[in-house]
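Hey all, sorry for the wall of text incoming. These are the two entities for the joint prediction.
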Amino acid sequence: MSIDLKTIKHISKLARISVDQQRAEKLAGDLNSIFDFIEKLNELKTDNVEPLTSIAETTLKLRSDEVKSKNIREQIIKNSPQNNEDYFVVPKVIE
Amino acid sequence: MSDITKQSLTELVENIKNKKLSSTDVTKAFIDRSEKSEKLNAYITNDFTSALDKAKKFDQKPNFDLKLPGIPMAVKDLFCTKNIKTTAGSKILNNFIPTYESTVTENIWNEGAILLGKLNCDEFAMGSSNETSFFGNVQSPIDKNLVPGGSSGGSASAVAGQLTPVTIGTDTGGSIRQPASFTGIVGLKPTYGSCSRYGIVAFASSLDQAGPMAQNVKDCALLHEVISSYDPKDSTSIDFKRNHYSKELTNNIKGKKIGIPKEYRVDGMPKEIEDLWQKGIQYIKDCGAETIDISLPNTSYALPTYYIVAPAEASSNLARYDGVKYGFRAKGENLIDMYEKTRSEGFGAEVQRRIMIGTYVLSSGYYDAYYLKAQKVRKLIKNDFDEAYKKVDAILTPSTPSSAFKIGEKTNDPVSMYLNDIFTVPVNLAGLPGISIPAGHDTKGYPLGLQIIGKAFDEQNILNIAYAMEEKINFRNKITDWWIK
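and here's what came out:
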């Protein structure tokens, strides 16, 4: 199988990573060699195998939903690249 | 002063408790050596000034009942530390100041230890050589041309170079054990669910585990005892009875059955590694334990499985880095353009590569062929271990298929870089504990490690085996201090 440039552009759109032509070509080469290596899995017949969905064989525990950290709004907002008082600021979405 | 940094954690704890050394003496010594070791590039952020303040405070009102009384310690920069920059080795988190503390580091400070600083690592722990870090590669204390391994490369370099008495790393596919092996130190990857993942920058959530890295097995056991805890804040943390690993440590492993898996004898493996393995088998026998040939038939499928599962989980986990709430933001013409440019400029090449692989294997039309297939093979790999553990108590393998390689040697060939983790990855896929101990040198004088893999939650057993073997191996790390003028 082969991953072409069109596919790379499609994946980069899904992943929200912009790639220019040069980067796309490099990625196509890398991904093709990685997938050649991954294809080895097709040697195995797995029709009757149950997929492993959780490595820890325990049921998830429930806990009450309580606020434990208090008054950290300011610190959290401070980490944002652009903010306005209590809000995160992003480029205009609605015209 | 220089002697202090040569002491093991166990010795330092004893000397502080007996008042032969103060926390200030010890902290000063490690700060001093760390400052002389800038060349290694082991630190991303240092916290030396407040470390000294904390040491002085400890000495004024010491509590000798704690397990790590006034012990200074640097940690991998993948652990969130409250009010101290945490970057995960990435430009995209270059200016991120967490408002909370990871559970594992919280456990360490609660036992009296003092943060020295944050250690370099591969970006988002994706790498086997510490060359993907935004903050530059780390040099190995063994030789200036060598990589320290990765992703916990700064951690390995700092312990082997005596910049910190012990440290913690994280291990998703070998990121504790491989660098430990490359730098001649001990590294333990605990059972999945043993150490809380809360506050650790996530890479692949079903594989990530934090673990100790140390100069010797006893120090490793002591630190593991401190960091392993049940934590309601991590939904996959497991509530089981934890041992006093250091107290219960014994070199009596008589009658234990140790499996030797034939599938780990891979094509092209240097004779030195095979010889080391044979020596390990002899040490096991000398300790009064028995070795048994076993088969883990699906071993060769572990790495391809890992390179579906880990990038898939990573692509989901790293979706949060969008330049809105924290971290780096690039300018964009509109919201989508801002996202795309932020992620393109904020992530390095290896991280982008893995996000792309992960996105692809999870995308419509490919999910069954790749992700579901990988989950099925993962089940087969786990079954292999379950079968083997009906006959044996633990498994002995080499830690890596070669000794440390040169800086730049594998950066252009991702697959050859990935092959480094061939012996460590199956352990993560099966959620088991594994420990790497230094076991000898190759002809170039570089360290080589052996790995002991245990049953789930059986850390005590593999620590004991490692402890018994360590005594027989009597390894001495060849550190020349080449980086200190």
